[in-house]
Amino acid sequence: MVGERRRELFSVGAIWLVVTVVAEYVAVAVSLHPPGASREARIIDEAFDLLLYLAIPVFTFVVVVVGYSIVRHRAGPDEELDGPPIRTNRAFIASWMVVTSVLTVLVIVPALAGMDKLAAGPEPGLVIDVRAEQWSWTFDYAGGEVRTKDTLVLPVDTRIQFRITATDVIHSFWIPAFRIKQDAVPGKVTETFVTAERIGEFRDDVGMRVQCAELCGLGHARMWTDVSVVSQEDFDAWFSSAGG
Ligand SMILES: [Cu+2]
To answer: Which fold is adopted by the domain 126-241?
Structure first.
């Protein structure tokens, strides 16, 4: 009986190990992220990957144990009695609590380290005031010297501070390719920082857009604006031609 149980534990452990190695390999080999175009996107994708690598063994453990039990221990067609009652297993409970506690602490690490990296950065080289309303975005550059509504034009490799507010209801300022999202709240100014690292625009990548991410009424889904990241020279030329 004990020998049989040991053999089963060994089989389950071996299957778990193999499935986990395969799943980790796939997770490393296949990129799950949509294209990223900012410094912040790299930091957030890194944290996401680390959390995924930590989650895989937990997921495969549950799937393998349940799958093994279903296949190996299903009741036969004539078995109508309940199985033997299981009251408790102190060793299992203790180790389960220790392992899950350690994992819980570990998943905090990439989040804290990532937030630290996001906060660290040079002084912003450009401040843009963002106003959200039903159902459009307005961008004021350098205190209102230049105002745009149709395209958010940004210089590459410059840390930009967005000061965000709303005039009517709560909206959310989200640029998928930059992995940043910040609520736009009436009567309040929220902020977020981003450093675009790739020249490009919406036509190359649908993630390059400001999209409202807080359901704000009938026009919510259409509340989006192109983002265009250009070189510093092109930005300066655009800025002066726009009246700045
Ligand atoms: Cu909105």
So the answer is: Immunoglobulin-like (2.60.40)
Domain residue ranges of the chain, discontinuous segments joined by +: 2-72+89-119, 126-241
Label the pairing between strands 146-148 and 209-212: unpaired
User: What SS3 state is found at 210?
Assistant: strand
Run means of pLDDT, 10 residues per run, the chain, 244 residues: 83 96 94 91 91 91 94 85 84 91 84 88 92 95 88 95 96 96 96 95 92 95 95 94 81
Report how far ligand 1's centroid is from the alpha carbon of 238 (Å): 27
Q: What is the pTM of this model?
A: 0.82
What CA–CA distance (Å, rounded) separates 19 from 23? Answer: 6
Instruction: Give the CA count within 13 Å in the CB-facing half-sphere of 190.
Output: 17
| CA 186 – ligand 1 centroid, Å | 12
What is the 164 CA–ligand 1 centroid distance (Å)? Answer: 12
